[in-house]
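Sequence in, structure out. Go.
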Amino acid sequence: MSRSWVDNRRYFREGGQVGIETKRGCPGQCIYCADPIAKGKEIRTRPAKAVVDELERLLEQGIDHIHTCDSEFNPPQWHASQVCKEIIRRDLGDRLRWYAYCSPVPFSRELARLMRRAGCVGINFGVDNGDEEMLRRLRRGFTPDDIFDAARSCQEAGIAVMFDLLLGSPGETRESIARTIELMQRAEPDRVGVALGVRVYPGTELADLVLQEEPIEGLLGGDDVSEPFYFLEPRIASFAFELLDDLIGDDRRFFFFDPSKPDRDYNYDDNQRLVDAIAKGYRGAYWDILRRYE
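Output:
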């Protein structure tokens, strides 16, 4: 992996996040996710030495802000630890600022400390929901307590935390949304991204679930399955935006798209605040740029 096929310097200079994979594949059972279909259900890890060789080649090009592109960095936890230890062994932790997608499990306090020593400054946990029943419906494999513990592990290690929510999947209720927002406020992550409506990818369990209904309810977007379309639980569609607005209030930690409050939007496409921050030299995960720029 020479990282010489494209002009990485220009890409980085103009604000891009340079990515790296430490593994491929995901054995997760999430009902909406296309990663196991696209990348395979079996994890294939790269040797830690090869990963860090690639990081050094990027550093030689002046690129010191990296984002992992694994489905999730920490499964398996032993491999994530090996990569971090190799970065530390080569004394690169102070030269790198990197971000990762992670799962709340398995995520130990020891791994959080290792990641920070290796230069990790921010983690995006795609937790989706904070309600125990909804997490079971989504087949996430972790609990609200696991989400809370992951936040604490990062906070103790000095790593910024982003929780991404994916609300509105089948079975979502007023009560499950309220419990989710309450958990986010109690866990105190640095930022929370709130998405309402779930992309439906062909071949996923979610697609099988919503397309077998007659008549099909809750679908938004494309006119047929050849175009992008989304699902929003019909029972909450009439009040979800207003409910979330009431629950979130003026809490600036939440990125939530409400058409009447564009400053909360963290859609990275055509985001003028993000463009301004990048022009002033900010680099890193876009959620973290928006956090620091504020």
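Check: The chain has a mean pLDDT of 93. The domain at 8-196+242-265+272-293 is CATH 3.20.20.70 (TIM Barrel).
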